[in-house]
Amino acid sequence: MTLGESDGALVSIAEAFDLPGRVRSLEPLGSGNVNESFVVVCDGPPVERFVLQRLNRRVFARPDLVMANMLALGEHVERRLAESGSPLGERRWDVPRVVRSRSDQRPWLEREGGFWRLITFVESARSFELVSSAEQAREVGIGLGLFHHLISDLSPERLADTLEGFHVTPRYLEHYDAVLAGAPAATGSDISHCRAFVEERRSFAPVLEEARASGRLRLRPIHGDPKVSNVMLEAGSGRAVALVDLDTVKPGLIHYDIGDCLRSCCNPLGEETADLEAVRFDVDLCRALLGGYLSAASGFLTAADYDHLFAAIRLISFELGLRFFTDHLAGDLYFRTERPDHNLQRALVQFRLTSSIEVQEPTILAMIDELRSGAAGAP
Predict the structure, then answer these.
(1) Cis peptide leading into 46, omega within 30 of 0?
(2) How many Å is the Cα radius of gyration of the chain?
(3) Domains of the chain and any CATH numbers
(4) Spatial CA neighbour of 318 closest among 234, 204, 223
(5) How many whole angstroms separate alpha carbon 156 and alpha carbon 166?
(6) Which of these, 18, 203, 279, 290, has the minimum number of CB atoms within 10 Å of its CB?
(7) Helices (H) and strands (E) in the chain, counts
(8) Could you say which DSSP state residue 91 is in?
(9) Element (DSSP H or E) covering residue 264
(10) pLDDT 10s digits, 247-291
(11) pLDDT band for position 5 (50/70/90)?
């Protein structure tokens, strides 16, 4: 909304933060499924932009801990960059900074029934809903690799688990079973297909959690939601310069991040497409993204990390489809929807993507082995 259309409530909230000047404009930003976001433009000089967000308290029961995680991560990355710079030379890397409230200097504000935060805008950069080339996919991979590299020595014990069970597929399966048992009997070919699809992969759901429990994989700090639209690419150069939407930062398995990034990047039609027959997992984009990721992150990956890459690629697309389908059955309580059966359509897309990954398993495994060998031989 512009200032001329607003009732002033959002402007009042923005100006309660320690901004450098008067709010000139305020407009909706992005198309996230969970939080509401707005870009705030302030008078200068110079004119500056910020991002105002209302966190979804149904999703984040402890938004204060979300902000504590964001501050801990930001301070750690800024210190790493100041001490040693980017691991890839002169490459720019930005960390969105938290703006504190004027009244009490807290990194948030509670007003109008909402929990609000204000962060700096990543200038001279933009995000994309879809990847258009292998070069762009490689930059997305570099962005995630840089992010993981810069927080690889941040103890996960310094971060609160603000979303317990997030990306823990067996828990989503338990929730699905509970919703299915309590939901009114749903019928239709799409419903039947989704139910059968889930049942056929039920035994695969705990693959990453079993590896963690056995000690083969370990907890690290993760972004939690590194989809393509959360990777900012610099205007002009096209280089990745930041990861945004840090509200999902928490301890977890980096495979959740890798799998989610690949799921988002390697579906050229995106998760909102209605053309199910054309949905596919693009192995060429996968190769480019993983190659970029390993150029920044290979130094801290273990043999077990590599061994579970394919499982992560397959699992996270299935997991998101399961979550969309469960939310559809539950009455669309979690993800924002724009029409009836929106979450059902989203689930069908993710399940179709999962099938494409499964069919191409030999090709993807061979590609991972090739990239692994190249990373091991790099100077």
Answers:
(1) yes
(2) 21
(3) 1-54 (no CATH), 126-377 (3.90.1200.10)
(4) 204
(5) 15
(6) 203
(7) 12, 11
(8) -
(9) helix 254-265
(10) 999 999 999 999 999 999 999 999 999 999 999 999 999 999 999
(11) very low
Distance of alpha carbon 41 from alpha carbon 46, whole angstroms: 11
Q: Tokens 């749903």 correspond to what residue?
A: 186
170: Cα within 13 Å, side-chain hemisphere:
10
Q: How far is CA 52 from CA 32, 67, 224, 245, 365, in A?
A: 13, 14, 20, 11, 42
How far apart CA 304 and CA 63 sit, in angstroms, is 34
The two tokens of residue 170 are: 């067996």
Sort 280 into a burial class: Cβ within 10 Å, 0-12 / 13-18 / 19+: middle
**Per-residue pLDDT reduced to its tens digit, 281-321:** 999 999 999 999 999 998 899 999 999 999 999 999 999 99
Contact 71, 65 (CB under 8 A): no
Report the SS3 class of residue 238. coil
Q: What is the residue type of 359?
A: V
For residue 38, the cross-strand partners are 28, 52
Looking at this protein, which amino acid is placed at residue 221? P
Residue 373 has which token pair? Answer: 């060998």
Please name the residues in contact with 10: beta carbons below 8 A apart, sequence gap of 6 or more: 1, 26, 38, 52
Extract the tokens encoding 76. Answer: 């750690």
CA proximity to 162, closest of 34, 36, 32, 61: 61
pTM over 0.70, yes/no: yes
